[in-house]
Design brief:
Blueprint lengths: L15 E3 L5 E3 L3 E2 L5 H14 L3 E3 L7 H13 L9 E6 L6 H15 L4 E6 L4 E2 L14 E2 L3 H13 L3 E7 L3 H10 L7 E2 L15 H8 L8 H9 L21
Parallel strand pairs: 3-4, 4-5, 5-6, 6-9, 9-10
Antiparallel strand pairs: 1-2, 7-8
Bound molecules: NADP nicotinamide-adenine-dinucleotide phosphate (NAP).
The site of NADP nicotinamide-adenine-dinucleotide phosphate has 18 residues, from α6.
Protein name: NADP-dependent oxidoreductase domain-containing protein
Organism: Rhamnusium bicolor
GO molecular function: oxidoreductase activity
Length: 253
């Protein structure tokens, strides 16, 4: 398969889901957590080349610059337009102060070499002090008690400034989402969480054969045996519980 030829999905156009604000989100995206700087640029280029239109990034992953190079390489070919892509990034826990939200998104945009993203998420409901480590180990001394409702006001400002089309959350529990929905002006469109089956998936891979097979799912049908097998794999555990922060006021689980 040619790596430079861009076409629209393996079995027709990549499926999308309509968000509550009318924008369409492609249901399969490329995850980039722990994708190494030397590999992710090529992975992103390859994924977009075979039809991926959604890339899931985060400031915390510390590879947005390389992701941005991969995206730009595809856009520069002139086959795809910016509006054909759905790019997501996330606000890390050290930057929950309202005044930090817009500057942090601007920083991610600069790394990604984009004028806007499609979806900006609050990565976790709990915050750390801006001066603390990104994953602090000294307990409450590094916690910030900024309420995620205040952070959300900064997120709304990002929409108003047209830096992102949509805003959402990640790792929020039901109570936190209900409270947010009751108190916001612009509603969240997504809660990105760990689940075995969901309305959208963002498998991470830097291996071309896997990037390809993870996208070749649009005519996949699960029968009851497959679903029973998947259910039997359930271990009732989270891969990423962030339990070191379980004593934080806004810890979700
Ligand atoms: N919001 C959040 O808090 C949060 C938390 C976790 C993850 N995420 C997002 O979700 C994405 C996916 O989660 P994840 O990165 O934890 O894990 P994942 O996608 O479940 O798994 C990634 C691992 O599986 C391997 N892999 C990928 N496709 C495969 C295939 N077809 N066959 C065999 N192995 C395969 C990858 O290896 P190679 O890369 O070596 O191919 C990598 O080691 C992340 O990258 C991130 O974008 C968000």
């Amino acid at each position: 398969m040619s790596e430079t030829k861009v076409f629209k999905g393996l079995n027709g156009l990549s499926k999308t889901v309509k968000l509550n604000n009318g924008y369409e989100m492609p249901t399969v995206g490329l995850g980039t957590y722990k994708s190494q700087a030397g590999e992710v640029e090529e992975a992103v280029k390859y994924a977009i080349g075979i039809g991926y239109r959604h890339v899931d990034c985060a400031w915390f992953y510390k590879n947005e610059r390389e992701v941005g190079v991969g995206i730009k390489a595809r856009l520069d070919e002139g086959v795809l337009k910016r509006e054909d892509l759905f790019i997501v990034t996330k606000l890390w826990n050290n930057f929950h102060d309202k005044k930090s939200v817009v500057p942090k998104l601007r920083e991610s945009l600069e790394f990604l070499q984009l004028e806007y993203i499609d979806l900006f998420l609050i990565h976790w409901p709990f915050g750390f002090k801006e001066t603390a480590d990104n994953l602090p180990t000294d307990g409450a001394a590094s916690y910030s008690d900024v309420d995620y409702l205040e952070t959300w006001e900064g997120m709304e400002e990002c929409v108003n400034l047209e830096l992102t089309k949509s805003i959402g959350v990640s790792n929020f529990n039901k109570e936190q989402i209900d409270r947010l929905v009751k108190n916001c002006t612009i509603k969240p469109v997504v809660n990105q969480i760990e689940v075995s089956l969901g309305i959208g998936v963002i498998p991470k891979s830097v291996t071309k054969t896997r990037i390809l097979e993870n996208f070749d799912i649009f005519d996949l049908e699960l029968d009851s045996e497959d679903i029973a097998y998947l259910d039997s794999c359930n271990k009732n555990m989270r891969i990423s519980p962030m339990s070191a922060y379980a004593d934080h006021k806004y810890y979700p689980f």
